[in-house]
Amino acid sequence: MRILDFEDHVAQELANARFDTQRRNLRLLTVIFLILSVLALLLPLVTEAVYWPGLLVGTMTLMSGAGLAHFEGRFRANSALRGQLRAGLRGQNRTAEILSVLDDDYYLLNNLKLPDRADDVDHLI
Fold it and tell me: What is the pLDDT of residues 57-97, one digit of tens each?
């Protein structure tokens, strides 16, 4: 069988429901700001420097931490949705695997997007 794969709507929705990029970037940003704020707050103790840079970086650390907490909360809230999407994706992959035994007289179109529709056709032979 000849297979034509189009953009997978379910896989995209699963990636969106995980917030991987946002969570990874905010974790890194929070750690960097935390290190900088500790250094900026310790600097006035060693020298005669002013305190406001440490307070500014500390505020930025709190803001990035709040953003991280927001996306972690959304990640936890979407656990049921992610489970449903993973199950749907496994079903799509299994169906394509079962249909792959057909000979080359058949075409299998996976994830066919229809005009003016938000969803797609998972498999069309």
Answer: 989 999 999 999 999 999 999 999 999 999 999 998 899 88
**Contact between residue 29 and residue 60 where contact means Cβ atoms under 8 Å apart:** no
Taking only the tens place, the pLDDT of each residue in 6-42 is 888 888 889 889 999 999 999 999 999 999 988 888 8
| Residue type present at position 4 | L
Count the neighbouring beta carbons within 10 Å of the beta carbon of residue 79: 10
The pTM for the full model equals 0.68
Contact between residue 8 and residue 113 where contact means Cβ atoms under 8 Å apart:
no
